[in-house]
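Sanity check. The docking grid for adenosine-5'-diphosphate depends on where the pocket ends up, so I'm generating a full predicted complex first rather than guessing from homology. Inputs follow.
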Amino acid sequence: MSLTAILVDGLTVRFGSFRAIDDLSLAIDYGEVRAVIGPNGAGKTTLLDVISGITRPKQGRVLFDGGLDLTQASESAIARAGLRRKFQKPSVFEGLSVRRHIAIGADVGFRSRLDAPALEDRVSEVLETVGLTDQADRLAGELSHGQKQWLEIGMVLASDPKVLMLDEPVAGLTDEETERTAHLVRALVRPDRAIVVVEHDMDFVERIADRVTVLHEGRTLFEGSMDRVRADAAVVDVYLGR
Ligand code: ADP
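Predicted complex below; grid placement will be based on this.
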């Protein structure tokens, strides 16, 4: 295993003549929570789309674990390699139980198939981690918005991901739900896992992120701890001060 989970090297993504990502290079290590922040249109979603194989870049490489080039791999190969993403909008199956969702996440994503008892253990463990044990037999459609977010995090977690991407995990959550989500994200940190979070809530980012990458116009404007990000004049100018 390489120390670097994701290595972005000279990445450029064009939509027509517009560069959504412009010669971007960065490294995300195992064991860290990396927040990617920046104004609307900075390229955050496009970066996650490239890492998850949805968008093909014009130039550059994105290496996973020093090997697999994600710009050449299919979406399913990327998921099989252990890179999983929770999208911004909850998209649960309203008529299926919470427990069944987690089982589907484990069954679809797990790199080696689990037998029935192992699957049951895995589902219980994930329900506990995301705080939904007492909701296990409810239908997903009956959950609050916050609980749906945790359920979706549980679904991707069930596959034991190497890289976990979270797209605006606290958008629309109450302060209390945001606090619980911060706890949850920190509980997912492991030496052999990288967690990448795109988020606009800076207090949340400060709670969870080991390092923050500030994107602006498809490039890195600043990278460092949230303290240093808050103190950087250019970041305040293009993003935080607005
Ligand atoms: P962010 O997530 O930081 O708000 P995005 O990655 O969504 O930014 O978008 C970066 C820029 O690329 C934006 O200006 C957006 O309008 C443009 N863009 C994103 N996807 C497409 C697309 N499919 N076609 C054309 N332009 C796009």
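Relevant for the grid: The chain has a mean pLDDT of 93.
Also worth noting: Residues 15, 20, 38, 40-46 surround adenosine-5'-diphosphate (CB under 6 Å).
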